[in-house]
Design a protein that fits this description.
Elements lengths: L19 H7 L6 H6 L7 H6 L17 H40 L15 E9 L8 H6 L7 E2 L17 H20 L1 H4 L5 H4 L4 H12 L9 H4 L8 E20 L2 E16 L6 H5 L2 E14 H6 L3 E10 L42 E3 L7 H6 L1
Parallel strand pairs: 1-6, 1-7
Antiparallel strand pairs: 2-3, 3-4, 4-5, 5-6
Length: about 375
Amino acid sequence: MAGRGNPPEGTPDDASGGDDEYRDDYRSVVFDESFIKAARLQEFSAQERMEDEGHAAVRNRAFSPAGDGTDAELNTAYGRGSITASRQGIVLVLLIVLAFGTAIYMGIRNPYQAPPEPPAEPMRNSLLPLAPRDEVPGATPADLYQHSPAAQFRAGADGVTLPPVRRTRHFSESQVLSALTAAKEYIVTTSLDPAVLSGNSVRDVRIMLDPAQQEQFDQSMDHPRNDGRHSSTAWMVRFDPSKTTLADHRIRVNGTMTVQESGADALEVVADHVFVYAVRATEEGEGKRAQENSSLFTVRREVRFQIDREDLRRQQLSVQQVSMRAGPLPCSADMSDALTPLLAGEKAKDDGAAGTDPYARGRSSASLCGVLSTSSQPSPAAQKDG
C-alpha cells in the first residue's frame, strides 16, 4: 500500500458513531471494500531492489554448530541432506554397474548365439599296391631316371606347380592363391621331405591340418589300419626305415593342381601328382654297390582338400580324400603303416590279391591289387648302362 488515509468516498456511515477510541485503535487494520479498491500497489523492480541496500531479497545466513538453536537445527538438516544425497549417488552408481554387468553377462550367455561351424569331415582314403610282372630293374639313380618315363620330370618342389590364379565368385585372387599355396606346402612336406619319408617326423604334417582332423591324424599314427580312414600312408608317403632308404634325395615329380569353389564359404583344391623315388635296401649302406643296386618306386597320389575361410585365416586345411597307387609292391603288402617296396632284383610272388573277409572287423589285409605296367619301369638299357 502506498500510504494511509480515509477512503475516497469519505467516512462510512456505519463508522460515524460509536466509540471514537475504539475506531482509532483499529483504524489501521480495518478497511472497507472501497478503501481496498482505491489502494495503490507498488512493487520494486529488480534494479530498485539491487540499489536499495535496505531491501535485500535474500538474507545470508551462516550455518555454524556454535550458532543459536535455529542455526543448529538448520545445520543438522543440511548435514542429513548431504548424507542422504551421497547415499543416493552411491546406490545410483551401483545400479548402473549392475545393469552394465548384467548386459555383458547376458551377451556372453545369450542362448541365441550363432551355432558353431560344423566340424571338418574325416579323411577317406583308398590305397592300391601295384605288383610288377617281372624282376625289378636295378642301376644307379641317374641311369634309372634317364631310361624311365620320369626322365623329363622336375626334381623336388619345382615339380609341384600352381595353376593360373584367378578370383572366384566368393573368393578374391589373394584368397585363392593362399589356398593353393597351403595345398602345395602340404604336398611338398608329405611327399618330398626326407624326414617325413623316413618316418622320423609327423609334427610338421599335423600342424598343417584343421584342428578338427588332428585327432583322426593322431589315431592313424598310433594305430594305423586299412579301414579307409586311418592309414598313416594316406596322410603322408613314408617308408619302413629298417628296410628301405632313399638312394637319391632329388625326387622326380610331375602333376597338376586345380581349384574351384565347393560352396560360398569354401574352396576345393585337387592335387594329382606322380612321385618317383630312387630307393635301395637300408642294409647295403652308402657304397657304390648300393647305388648300383638302386631301383625306382612310383607313387600316383591324388589329394583332395577342403579349405574354408577359417582355414585361410589360420593357414591350415582339411584333407577330404586321398587316392594312392604305388609300386612295385607285392599284392599282399600292408600299406597302412609304411611302404616296403620290392627292390632291385626282387619279384612279386604269385600270391594274387588278398582275400576279403566280410565278417572281419578292424584291421585287415589289402583286398585289391593292381599290375604295374612294364612300360612304367626303367628300360633294360638302364641296367646295361649301370
